[in-house]
Design a protein that fits this description.
alpha/beta, 7-stranded mixed beta sheet, 5-stranded mixed beta sheet
C-alpha cells in the first residue's frame, strides 16, 4: 500500500499491540481468573435473557437498561452514564470529543498507554509528568504542569496501571480545581481499591469525567463493557462522537445481570485482594527482586538483572507475565493476581532462577 495514502499521524504510528499468546497460564492482562457464569444465579438470569433477545433488532442506542443498572450501582442519575465497548472505546470517544490536532493532553508516567496512543492518532501532543522514586506520583509536578499548560485534557489513572498506586482523592481534587478544561479519571481498578471514587467530585466540578469498567472486578473482559460517568452536559457532548448502536444486545443484557449479582461477584474480588496481599508479603522477603504495593488485582515487580532469565523461565513454565519494551521499564514485570496455586508456581520459578531466593 502507498504510505502516502495514510493520515500524517499514522505514517509512523505504532499501535497498541497484543502479542500472540501460547502459554496456558496467562497473567499479563489483569483479567479475572473466575468465570461468573459458574455462579448458578448468574447463569439462570443469563439463560432467561438469552431466550428473550432479538438479534434481528438493533440494540438500544444508549443501552438504557444497562445505563439504569450502572446508575443504581453508583447511586447517580442514568443521564450521567455513557456505555461503550470497554473503557478503551470510551477513551477514544473522549479524545475525539475534546482534542484537536496540536492540543495538549497531560498525564503522568508510567501509566496506561491508550491515552497517548489515541492522542497521537488525531495529532495531539502528550505531556507526561514522571513519577517520583518508588512510583509515587508527583502531584506538585502535575499541578505545576496544569497551571503552566492548561492542557485541553488531563488524564489521571487511579489506581494507576501499571504501578498499582492509589492516589488520595484530595490530590485528584487539587488537579481538577486547577484545570480550566476537562479532567478524566480512569478508575478501571477502583473496585479492588475499595476507595472513594472521583464520581463524588462531579457535582462540584462539572469538568470531571470518570471511566469505569466491568472487565476487571466483574470479570467481563471478553464482553467489552466500559462506561463513562459525568454530568449530563458532558455525556451529551461525548455522545456526539459515539456510534449509534455501539454496544451489542448481549453485552447490554449481561452487563446488567453482572451488576445485579455484584455481591456474589465481589466475594471473588475479596479473595483476589487477600491473595494479592499474601503473595506480596511472601515476595517481599525474596532477595534480588522488588515488589511495589498495589491497590489493584496486579502488582509491579522489578526483577533487576534477573529479568531476562526470569521471563524465559516463566514462559518455559507456561506462564506469561507482562513485560515492557521501554529501557526505563525493561527489568519490570506486571503480574496479575489470580489463585494461590498459580502464585506458588511463580514463586517456585523465581526461586529456581535467583540464587538464595
Amino acid at each position: 500500500m502507498n504510505n502516502n495514502w495514510l493520515r500524517k499521524t499514522l505514517k509512523d504510528f505504532a499501535p497498541y499491540a497484543v502479542a500472540p499468546i501460547h502459554e496456558k497460564t496467562v497473567i499479563n492482562a489483569n483479567e479475572s481468573y473466575f468465570n461468573i457464569l459458574s455462579l448458578p444465579s448468574v447463569m439462570k438470569d443469563a439463560e432467561e435473557a438469552l431466550a428473550s433477545l432479538k438479534p434481528q433488532i438493533y440494540p438500544a442506542p444508549m443501552a438504557d437498561t444497562l445505563r439504569e443498572a450502572i446508575a443504581d450501582y453508583l447511586s447517580v442519575d442514568p443521564s450521567w452514564i455513557l456505555a461503550g465497548n470497554g473503557g478503551d472505546e470510551v477513551i477514544t470517544y473522549i479524545i475525539n470529543t475534546f482534542l484537536d490536532p496540536e492540543d495538549i493532553l497531560l498525564t503522568h508516567a508510567p501509566t496506561f498507554d491508550m491515552y497517548d496512543t489515541e492522542a497521537v492518532v488525531i495529532g495531539a501532543k502528550t505531556i507526561s509528568v514522571p513519577d517520583l522514586p518508588g512510583f509515587k506520583r508527583d502531584w506538585d509536578g502535575i499541578a505545576k504542569a496544569v497551571e503552566k499548560y492548561q492542557p485541553k485534557l488531563t488524564v489521571l489513572c487511579n489506581p494507576n496501571n501499571p504501578t498499582g498506586e492509589l492516589a488520595p482523592l484530595s490530590e485528584i481534587e487539587r488537579i481538577v480545581s486547577l484545570s480550566k478544561n476537562p479532567v478524566l479519571v480512569d478508575e478501571a481498578y477502583i473496585e479492588f481499591a475499595q476507595a472513594e471514587s472521583a464520581i463524588s467530585l462531579i457535582k462540584k466540578y462539572p469538568n470531571v469525567m470518570v471511566i469505569r469498567t466491568l472487565s476487571k472486578a466483574f470479570g467481563l473482559a471478553g464482553m467489552r463493557c466500559g462506561y463513562m460517568v459525568a454530568d449530563s452536559d458532558m455525556i451529551d457532548a461525548v455522545s456526539k462522537v459515539k456510534s449509534p448502536y455501539n454496544l451489542n444486545i448481549f453485552t447490554q443484557a449481561f452487563g446488567a445481570i453482572a451488576l445485579k449479582h455484584r455481591d456474589e461477584i465481589f466475594k471473588v474480588r475479596d479473595g483476589i485482594i487477600a491473595e494479592r496481599d499474601r503473595f506480596l508479603a511472601e515476595l517481599s522477603f525474596v532477595n534480588g527482586i522488588r515488589v511495589y504495593p498495589s491497590s489493584t488485582n496486579f502488582f509491579l515487580m522489578d526483577a533487576g538483572t534477573y529479568a531476562p532469565a526470569l521471563f524465559e523461565a516463566l514462559r518455559k513454565a507456561d506462564i506469561l507475565v507482562k513485560k515492557y519494551k521501554s529501557p526505563e521499564m525493561a527489568s519490570f514485570f506486571r503480574i496479575t493476581v489470580t489463585t494461590k496455586d498459580v502464585d506458588e508456581r511463580i514463586l517456585s520459578v523465581i526461586r529456581e532462577v535467583i540464587p538464595n531466593a
